[in-house]
Amino acid sequence: MSDRSPLIRITAMPTDLNPYGGVFGGWLMSQMALGAGSLASREGKGKAVVVSATDFAFPGAMAVGDELSVYCEILATGNTSLTIAAEALARERNGEAETKVASGTFKFVMLGDDDKPRPVRAVGGKWA
């Protein structure tokens, strides 16, 4: 694993489990969206909203007490949008073993104060 830093780190709790004792895929997706949204807001310096979520895979499972780390990277920058890949790794509660438990892609649109799409980057100190 590279020397990247997680955008989100959280421990799975009993309320995050399904009736079979596994962590809900929806909980994983929401944590990934929070991490990707943090990166989008930082990069675009403002309000970013999810407009699509695609390409999800759940190659591993995590248990209650496992620590989830979400890593994100920008795949593409449009005029008003950012496409961000998210990867979720679970670390076992009492050890160092990590398992990739989810991955997916989010598309965010930057919004201005009027809640309408605005450019990702300012031009000449102002939003174009």
Automatic annotation (TrEMBL):
<keyword id="KW-0378">Hydrolase</keyword>
<dbReference type="InterPro" id="IPR006683">
    <property type="entry name" value="Thioestr_dom"/>
</dbReference>
<dbReference type="Pfam" id="PF03061">
    <property type="entry name" value="4HBT"/>
</dbReference>
<comment type="similarity">
    <text>Belongs to the acyl coenzyme A hydrolase family.</text>
</comment>
<protein>
    <submittedName>
        <fullName>Hotdog domain-containing protein</fullName>
    </submittedName>
</protein>
<feature type="domain" description="HotDog ACOT-type">
    <location>
        <begin position="2"/>
        <end position="114"/>
    </location>
</feature>
<dbReference type="InterPro" id="IPR040170">
    <property type="entry name" value="Cytosol_ACT"/>
</dbReference>
<dbReference type="InterPro" id="IPR033120">
    <property type="entry name" value="HOTDOG_ACOT"/>
</dbReference>
<dbReference type="InterPro" id="IPR029069">
    <property type="entry name" value="HotDog_dom_sf"/>
</dbReference>
